[in-house]
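[User] At your convenience, examine this fold.
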Amino acid sequence: MWIYFYAAHLLGEFIFQSDQFIEQRKNKPIATLIKHVAIHALLMGMASLVIAFANPSVTSATLRSLGQAIFLISISHYVIDYGKMKLSKKMNRVSSQALLFLIDQILHFLSIIFVLHYFTTSEWSFMDNIQVFYGDFGIYEKIAATICVFILATYGAGYFLGILLQNMAPNNELQEGIYRLSDEKTEVKTKYESDGKKETEIITIKTEQYFHDSPAKIGQIIGMLERTLIVILMMIDLPQGLAFLAALKTLTRFKQFEHKQFAEYYLIGTLSSAMIGILLGIVASNIW
């Protein structure tokens, strides 16, 4: 049962939370947080209807218990997000922000698990719900679990990587939409005169390349598509397709690899993204 509520949580956390909504948190944090929690409660209410549809044996008493669970989960969600909001102002390091994001998501997950376990323990046990990741549950649970995997692989991983890599991106911006890649090479040439005298010539070659940046968020979209394809390839048992995917992505940035800082940034981002995609792909393959 918890998988429906967790899918609702991820929808509210990533899909129904726009950039504009996040910006509003800076000016009206409490009001925006209340709206955010209300959206989660509404989505979990819809998840309860899905549970009732998928399980005809669900009684009105169970639905009342789910309503109570939604209320308690909403309160815990508010408390967790409020605590995160306060801590984020004091934790400015990238590693701290990334860790805070992970802790926040883990706490939300655990609150859903334990609250639902408390209110529905007479009909669904904690261990029975875990079986959804071992392929022993019904089609609706598997669909909900797969939705969770793809949301985490796209929006969730993208948000996390955005935090993790925010200080690693090359700072080559000249003006909005135009970037510069600079490189410098030193060549040392040695030659000998007829009298045996040695002469050394040092040549420094500096190159600068100017290019227009891609449209806004295009890199984020590419990353989301990349992880989506990785999950799909893992689900259909075609891991060899990962090599083609990596080669295709590399071709689009080949010229920029001459810039060491960009190459390192690209490598860290690509490996991190691929690792997340592969791990979630393994989870998705076990669902089905």
